[in-house]
Amino acid sequence: MIRDITLGQYYPGSSWIHKLDPRVKILATLLYIVALFVIHKFSGFIVAFVALEAVIIISKVPRKFIWRGLKPVLLIIAFTLLINMFMIKGEVLWQMGFLHITREGLRTAAFMGIRLVLLIIGSSMLTLTTRPIGLTDGIEALLSPFKKLGLPAHELAMMMTIALRFIPTLLEETDKIIKAQQARGADFESGNILRRAKALVPILVPLFISAFRIAQDLAMAMEARCYGGSVKRTRMNEMKMGSRDLVAALLFMVFLALIILQRVFMG
Amino acid sequence: MEFIKADKLTFEYKKTNDAGQEISTEAIKGVSFSIEKGSFVAIIGQNGSGKSTLAKNMNALLIPTTGKMYVDGIDTSDLTRLWDVRQRVAMVFQNPDNQIVSAIVEDDVAFGPENIGVDPAEIRQRVDAALSGVEMSDYRKKAPHLLSGGQKQKIAIAGAVAMEPECIVFDEPTAMLDPAGRQEVLNVIRKLNARGITAILITHFMEEAAQADQILVMDNGEIKMEGSPKEIFRRADELKAFCLDVPAPVALASALREKGIELPEDILTTEVLVEELIK
After folding, report:
1. CB spacing of B61 vs A227 below 8 angstroms
2. Would the CB atoms of B103 and A237 count as touching at under 8 Å?
3. Element (H, E) at B152
4. Smallest Cα distance from B180 to chain A, Å
5. Considering the entire predicted model, what is its pTM?
6. B107 and A225: CB-CB below 8 Å?
7. CA end-to-end distance (rounded Å), chain A
8. Which residues contact A184 (CB under 8 A, 6 or more apart)?
9. What are the tens digits of pLDDT across the range A171-198?
10. Closest CA to A86 of A71, A76, A96
11. Is the pLDDT at B192 greater than 90, yes or no?
12. ipTM (interface pTM)
C-alpha cells in the first residue's frame, strides 16, 4: 500500500508550460497567489479563472490529476465556508435559534471559497508541470541573491533534492519495520488513540535509527564523489531563459495589469 | 606501473567509551602492497578483516594513522590534494540505495562531474557515455527507487565512471544483489577493466575473486596471502584457516583429483572444468 505513493505530484509531459523555466513558473505562481488576495470583486475572479483555465488547457494535465490535488483540502474549504456563512453580521436572510445566514456572510463565503479553490489549483499547476529537480534548482537560483545575507541557498536545495530522493526509500523501510513488528505480534489496529499512538513507538525508533544509518552511508558516498558544497560546482542542466519564457512573462504581466486595473477602476 | 601503493599502512578506529576513555581498535596492521595500473585485483577476507577499511584508505575517505598510501604518486594524507585523489579513485559501495543522491537517474550520474566543476556540455556527454557503458540508457529519466538492485548498482557504477577515474574501488557491490544482478554487475566491472580502468573488487564471493588478475587475502588487519587466483586457490587449506572457501569448481576438481581422476591444477571456472572432464 505504502509504495503506491507517487513522488510529489508531477505529471510528466512536454507541453509549453512544462518546458517553461522553473524560475518563471515559481515567481508567476507566487504573484498569482498575491493577485488572488488583491482581487476584491467577483469580476476579478473571472480574469483569474480564465487565466488558470488557459494554463490548464495548454499544459494538457488531465482534470483528474487536478481534482486529486483538490480533494484533500475540500474539508478545510467546506469548514471555511460554514464559518463565514454563519459568523458574519449583516442583513439576515434566514434564522433558526442562534444560527443565522446573512447576505454579507453568503457573499464572503462564496468569495473565500473561490479564492481558495483558485489558489490550490494554481499552486498545484506548478508542481504538476515542474520536475521535482527543476523545482529545487529554481528555488536555489531564486534564493541565491540572498546568499550574501548568509542564506544557505545551495544547501537548502540539496536538502530538498535528497529529501525527495529518500521519501520512497524511507517509506519502504517503514513498510519493512511494520511487517517485522507485526510478525512478532505487534498490534497497530486496535485500542483507543492513546494505545495506537503508543504502538507507533516500536516503528519510529527503528525508523530513526535506519534514517541515521542511511544518512551516514549517503554522506560517505557523496564525499567519495567529490561533493564539497556549492564551491565551483556546475550543473548539467543549466537553466536558460528562452523566448518562450519571455512570452510567458509578458502574458503574465498582462494578467497582473488586468487585475490591478480592475482593482483600481472598478473598486 | 604501480598506481596504488601502501607503505606500512596502519589504521586505528578511535571510539570514546561510556567512561570517557578513548579506545582505539587497530583495523589495519602495517600493510604494504602495490597495485598495477589497469589490473583487476580482488580483496577477500572474512567480516572484520579490514578490507573495507583498506578500501576507504584508497581514496582518502580515511587517512592512515601511520604509514602512507600513495595514489598515482600522491600522498593521500596531503589534504590539499584530496580532490585529486578522489577524482583518480572512485568508489562504489555495498548498498545501492544509500549512494544514489538524486531522484532521477541521469541527474544522479551527473552529480560527480558537477561537483568537480566540469563544463555542462561535457557533463552531458559523460553522462550519456557512462549510462550506455552500463547499458542503462533506456532508464535515464526513471526514478531510482523503481529499479532493481542490480540496476541501481549499475547506476552507481555509471556515476563513478562519469568522473572519469583511473581506478574504481568496488566495496562489496554485489553483496545485496540476487544472482542475476550479481552477474550483470560483474560483467560491467570486467568491461570497465578491459577499457583500462584499474578495478579493485572487495568481495565475499570466491567465484567473483577467481576472475581477477590478482588476489589479496586479508585476515585480522593483515595481508596473509597474495597472488594470482590459481596460486591462491591451490592453497585451500590455508584459506580455510581464514574462514574462506575456494570456488565450487575448484573444490570439485580437487575432490575429483583425490578420487584419481586426472585434472590439471589450474581449474577456476565451471566452463573449464566441464571442458576438461569432456576430454
Report:
1. no
2. no
3. helix B149-161
4. 22
5. 0.81
6. no
7. 52
8. none
9. 889 999 999 988 988 887 777 888 888 8
10. A96
11. yes
12. 0.87
